[in-house]
Amino acid sequence: MKKYLKVRHLAETIIRFRFLSIIFSLLILAGLVPGLSKIHFNPDINSFFPENDDLTTSHLRIEDTYSSMDNVVIAIGVKEGTVFTHKVLSLIEGLTEKAFFLPGVGTLASARTARWIKNNVPGVHIPDSIFKRLEGAQDQKKEGQKICTELMQQVKEIEGVSGVHVMAYKQEECVAQMVQDSGVLGDRKPWSPKDEY
Hints:
Layout: H1 2-16, H2 18-36, H3 54-66, H4 86-93, E1 104-106, H5 111-120, H6 128-136, H7 140-156, E2 165-167, H8 175-182
Parallel strand pairs: 1-2
Helix pairs in contact: 1-2, 6-7, 7-8
């Protein structure tokens, strides 16, 4: 109660002497203005990390490769069925001869997760057969990874596809094994920022 009374007394004093309060505030502001010119914000990502940091080096490499003005990302979804069909992707192929098609596939932790994604993430289609497989599996997480691996293998066979975007929310540690199991790399070695530094 005493604290409330002190705050109330301070507020009443400021209101009673509002003219002096305004002048005092303006004097403080005038004293701070010269220092404002010395405040500088550098939005460059390199200013936030140590020199030769793996993250910034990777970022700069990706930026050099993909951030020029001639790059365009086109996202395509279908209302029913899957986008990974020869028919759908052959239609997309006609858009440009210089396009790199990277279909996105994801691993599902459980049938419950799959149902949530289907109901809440626009543009995602999960067929009923996937739900049946997940629900019938003893280890739904492993089955989700197996399904993702199979999708990578299917996508690899589609003409015009340059790669695959693997989404593995909270299962990132499984991506390397799924890519290896899918065989999509053949005898190529996957690139990692740590390979160069």
